[in-house]
Specification:
Helix Hairpins, mainly alpha, Monooxygenase
Length: 174
């Protein structure tokens, strides 16, 4: 293990989008058990600092790998095509129309049930898009299409946050 290893190598996992969350969690526990600073308490301050660096590195890798969207963005970056969502917001017209329709539906939703129904619809679309990422990255090797899909999913994630805020306003006891 090297601090400079990519997250997949560090975790001993293949560079794939389709990974089992339980495997990622298990590898994290194994790695944290090996590098936890408490294991190096008797070896002095320098050994503990190095262990802390490793613990931080493992946690950072875990945060990227556990989330399908972060994992996909990371795979795109590793394959030489960073998502660059802050610089590239171009989206297909159909996706933009769908976003506008969802936003209008959220504005027009008069109660919790309507907002929850919209959230279910958006969540299903999000799940479909995440599943497509595995096909694009693992089967087709189409990093450009995957990067575009990641950017679209970032829009979807922000919209789901807007839905959650609206639900909190409608029903603060949630």
């Amino acid at each position: 293990m090297k601090l400079t290893d990519d997250d997949f190598t560090l975790f001993g996992l293949p560079q794939r989008q389709a990974l089992d969350r339980a495997d990622i969690d298990a590898r994290r526990r194994e790695l944290q058990a090996r590098v936890h600073p408490d294991r190096f308490a008797s070896e002095g301050a320098a050994a503990q600092r190095i262990a802390m660096q490793w613990a931080v590195r493992v946690n950072e890798a875990y945060q990227r790998l556990k989330d399908p969207l972060s994992r996909a963005a990371y795979l795109c970056e590793l394959r030489g095509l960073p998502v660059q969502a802050e610089n590239n917001t171009a989206m297909p017209g159909a996706f933009l129309m769908q976003q506008m329709a969802w936003r209008e539906a959220l504005e027009e939703a008069s109660g919790t049930a309507a907002v929850e129904q919209l959230d279910d619809t958006v969540a299903a679309d999000e799940a479909r898009r995440i599943a497509e990422l595995a096909i694009l990255l693992d089967e087709r090797g189409d990093t450009a299409a995957a990067a575009a899909q990641v950017r679209a999913l970032m829009f979807v994630a922000r919209f789901r946050e807007d839905i959650a805020r609206r639900l909190d306003v409608l029903d603060p006891s949630r």
